Amino acid sequence: MDAIILVGGQGIRLRPLTLKRHKSVVPVGNKPAIEWLFDWLLEHGVQRIVLALGQNNETLSLKYPKGSYRNLEIEHVVERERLESGGAIRNAVTTAGLKDQFLVLNGDIFVDFDLTKAIKNHNQINASLTLALCKVKDPSAYGVAVLNNSSLITGFVEKPPPGTEQSNLVNAGVWIFEEKLVEEIPPGKVRVEETLFPSLVARNQLVFGYQFDGLWADLGTPERYLKINQQIAQRDGGNIIANNNHFQDVSLQGNCIGKNTVINKNVEILNSVLWENVHVQENVKIEDSIIADGVTIGEGATIESSVLASGSTVPPRKHLKPGTHLLPGERYDETDG
Fold first, then answer.
1. 3-class SS at 205?
2. What is the CATH number that goes with domain 225-326?
């Protein structure tokens, strides 16, 4: 089976982290996010991946060139203009010659469920389309699907206000497509979530909602990105620490820490993500924060619920208040820090 991964977006919601790195390769559990998708698809029998690339996606195409990743064939299809999900799917199918049944995934998600079972269920009921659906506590920030007793989708509600939701099942960004559906995608710049999917349901086509309880996240914002890293660290024993690091008398809990990071003595880091080549001086506390590659944190600094982009600097004894964001290369210079 083939899979299209939609990676044409610019990662605007995930800034400032994506000003220097494509959103699909920000590290999740110390591994580029998209490689979690590659490995998951490979596990479930996918043989070829088509990366539906937008303009200015050179860093992603260079990191994963045409060829193979382990036993997966990788192919590129590049948009000449912004196409949104529908146009990107149609462009990828036409250009790469996809046939019969295929998968479509958003490139900015983390997902782990029994895909093989989902495909089996799709085929058993001869569905036109299957959407993977994940339960969330608060669906007000997402589009939700409403199901009948046979798990067929009967309607969609976009970002229902709290207390009004008919469902807490959100579209997880993994779809099982039949080739015939491509002809029904309206021409131009369109989103299938707003055009094709509601149209199929309105015409009583078999649109199956596959509910799963596995780990899932939309990586689109710093808050969601941090949360999935915290969940993976907890699942894997408390901390995920790469090789080639240098630590001295540190307290770590619930973190993902990348390679070539130096952490000096009397440092406490809680529920945070550190990318590669981070340098933390003595007597520092970091909590619920994202520290990108090449960041330097001075002695005695305190960082709470902040996002520090690539190459930024925190001088000694500064206190970064919750919600602080530093741009790439920026030096924190609040005089009251």
1. coil
2. 2.160.10.10
